[in-house]
Amino acid sequence: MPTARRDVGMEVLDGKLYAVGGYSNGFLSSVERYDPAAKAWEAVAPMAEARHSHGMAVLDGKLYALGGYKGDDDGPLSSVERYDPAVGAWEAVAPMAEARSDHGVAVLDGKLYAVGGLNEDDGFLSSVERYDPVANAWEAVAPMGEERFDHAVAVLDGKLYAMGGQNYDGGHHRLISSVERYDPVTNAWEAVAPMAEARYAHAVAVLDGKLYAAGGRGHDHRLSSVERYDPAVGAWEAMAPMATARMKAFALLM
């Protein structure tokens, strides 16, 4: 990329890869887009607000950036911006009810979910909000059974999964291996098989009807390990590890 950035948001839209915000000697509002056909990056319109540790998703052909931080002395954001590639511009949409960073974001049944994260007032979050783009409004749905941030979320077979992450229990740092699954029909979460390895800041992807969790950080080191969850048998299995241990990476299908 032309700009080195960490705690960045990444998503794929119309076959192109977007790098949104992040941090690089300052908090970034800039956005860069990679075209794999041209093998080149280009700058596109920046967000109205600089943000890092935010959530990203694509819904109805538009790119959403949710929450995050905008500065060292500022708490998490509740603001949400939406990028329309047809006009090449960002616009503000309804903010989340709860400011959050380091949260999970996913799209399920045409709606956007913001899951868990960090909040300056409430600390570690189990709360979940759902955005309806037609109504331009957020509503609370059932919270997770466990507070978590730096976790990963994904949608598989019409259900939303929240995997791993971290929190603090009695002042002690706690890494999480547990996995929860949300059913929008019943508006309820249930525990499913935990990962073999507790991890946070990991990448997740869905491929051929199975869920992959890759890398992240364990108790005292970055991870190269990869696990795969098969919903048909309700179990995780170890896969070949990555060549390089990495955290805060992304797994995206193009």
UniProtKB/TrEMBL annotation:
Keywords: Kelch repeat, Repeat. PANTHER family: KELCH PROTEIN, KELCH-LIKE PROTEIN 28. It comes from Emiliania huxleyi (strain CCMP1516). InterPro entries: Beta-prop_ATRN-MKLN-like (IPR056737), Gal_Oxase/kelch_b-propeller (IPR011043), Kelch-typ_b-propeller (IPR015915), Kelch_1 (IPR006652). Pfam families: Beta-prop_ATRN-LZTR1. The keyword Repeat applies. Residues 17-225 form the Attractin/MKLN-like beta-propeller domain. This is Attractin/MKLN-like beta-propeller domain-containing protein.
